[in-house]
């Protein structure tokens, strides 16, 4: 399918819009705030001084973020047709929201923000230590998303127009009922619903609502750490490949199609489970000096994958699109990209 022939609003994504505050730091700062490299957590009270410290002492950058919003921006960049993707999330009535809005619209995303006066727009501290990044999210306004926003006329219209739906696992900590509503809608209409496990804590602390959504889930994304945490929470044993295979076999409610599982492993091959079979798809290597920032690599992978899914491409091609998106983004600071996408599938 030619991207130019795509309808607007084919994909709806729902998540937590956050402004990333990103800086290169030493391990001492991670230790100070009890953070781990290559982890993602929700901020507690003890983390609140971190954001100011990053801005005052580490020359931090402000980068439009939020996992799902990043994914949709990358998908739009590859598709080159505006407004194929529509995004739901909650922001404050402030300058941070203005920055997020301007960036997302410039990248072609159609926005259906819920706006609250009860909290400022959410932020995410991104602590980069060499090749690793630690994320500490202060959801703030993002936590104020309510299911009734989906019932607004313009939102209902967007939901009815979509044939693909995507959510981060992060969002299950905010409005599991909204995620479940979209999953059930997609399932009952024969559309596709995908979820990203997002971080180990999602499976550890939100197993019950996650399990409900999985009944309607067509595609599960995760990296090796997230999948291992999922396996522990759901009492699944075996190697990473065996776990991925068993994840695909978790029962679905009146399944319309076999579930697909996609596991990324950094520079190691991507594990693709399709129709009960495992395919390992190699990741072309980058030189160490080419890697600028791995923050956003996972979001970019799903963005590249989804761009090809919308086009009706085979799953192997979708994975190649994901690898392309991730490789491009990790050569930049934050989830950003330059120039036009020149993605070309291998077959």
Automatic annotation (TrEMBL):
Pathway: Purine metabolism; AMP biosynthesis via salvage pathway; AMP from adenosine: step 1/1. It catalyses: adenosine + ATP = AMP + ADP + H(+). One of its GO terms (molecular function) is adenosine kinase activity. InterPro entries: Adenokinase, Carboh/pur_kinase_PfkB_CS, PfkB_dom, Ribokinase-like. It holds the Pfam family PfkB. Coiled coil: none annotated. This is Adenosine kinase. It comes from Arctia plantaginis.
